[in-house]
Design a protein that fits this description.
By secondary structure, the protein is of the alpha+beta class. It is built from five helices and four strands; from the N terminus they run H-H-E-H-E-E-H-E-H.
Length: 156
């Protein structure tokens, strides 16, 4: 049995968490997204099927200390659905918020334990995303402010 002193134990624990987060990122980008899929069903579409998107309620159930990758903000839920249908990945979520008296729809991807894991995921995700005219700028966000935004806007 390995015995570590507290400072060594803390460093080792952080290292293991980062390593495991990286494994989760790699698995999620290869269609086995255990931390972001809702029910284990195959969400990869064939172009004619609508892919399932996790909803705001699902985002509220996640740990507020977790992180997600914000992909895009659009003006309609249908635009979000159309964009997701073009992807060969699962693990997307969407929510809406009100800004300047208009509803905005936000598409996120995954749930990650650390900002470093989410950043690594965003670097891999950018290569896999389809349907954009230009390379999108992805934003790593903590779930707490996302959840606060969800709670202040009626969701559908």
């Amino acid at each position: 049995m390995l015995t570590l002193k507290q400072p060594q134990k803390n460093r080792f624990t952080r290292y293991i968490r980062k390593a495991l987060s990286t494994v989760v990122v790699l698995l999620s980008l290869h269609g086995a997204n255990a931390s972001a899929a809702t029910s284990g069903e195959n969400l990869n579409g064939d172009g004619n099927k609508q892919q399932a998107i996790n909803d705001a309620e699902w985002l509220l159930k996640q740990s507020p200390q977790s992180y997600a990758i914000q992909i895009v903000t659009l003006s309609s839920a249908q635009q979000i659905q159309d964009l997701v249908n073009e992807q060969s990945l699962s693990g997307f979520a969407r929510f809406r918020y009100k800004s300047d008296n208009q509803l905005r729809y936000v598409l996120t991807y995954g749930v990650y334990a650390t900002p470093e894991a989410a950043e690594a995921g965003s670097q891999l995700l950018i290569e896999k995303l389809q349907g954009f005219n230009a390379t999108p700028t992805l934003w790593v966000r903590e779930l707490m402010p996302i959840q606060k935004s969800i709670r202040t806007t009626l969701q559908n």
